[in-house]
Amino acid sequence: MPGGQVKFTSKGEILKIWDMKAGKTGLYVSVYDESAKNPTFDTCHVKGKGKGKGKGKTCDMKFKNGHKLDINVFSYTKLSDHNTRELVASRQDKA
Question: Reduced to 3 states, what is the DSSP secondary structure of residue 70?
Fold first, then answer.
């Protein structure tokens, strides 16, 4: 994905995201466990800052082993404004 990278490790449910360069756009990742009796979700976000420098973040997510997860990656300009989010990637994985 241009300007960013996302890596999800099933063992331990570790999500790492990088916004590779500073700018007005950040990355927001939502992970949904829809196979749970009561569906749960977790999120992680990062936005590069400074002069041309990117930023990375590691998020430790807790989902039940073996559950199917829906992972959605969005770019955003203002985190609190859902209208600025644009879906840039989506995939399914297992916890």
Answer: strand
Give 6-60 pLDDT, tens digit per residue: 998 888 889 999 888 777 888 999 999 988 788 889 999 998 775 667 788 999 9
CA distance 38 to 22: 38
Q: What is the pTM of this model?
A: 0.85
CB–CB of 36/64 below 8 Å? Answer: yes
Q: Produce one character per residue of 1-25: b if its CB has 16 or more CB atoms within 10 Å, e if not.
A: eebbebebeeeebebbbbbbeeeeb
81 touches 68 (CB < 8 A)? no
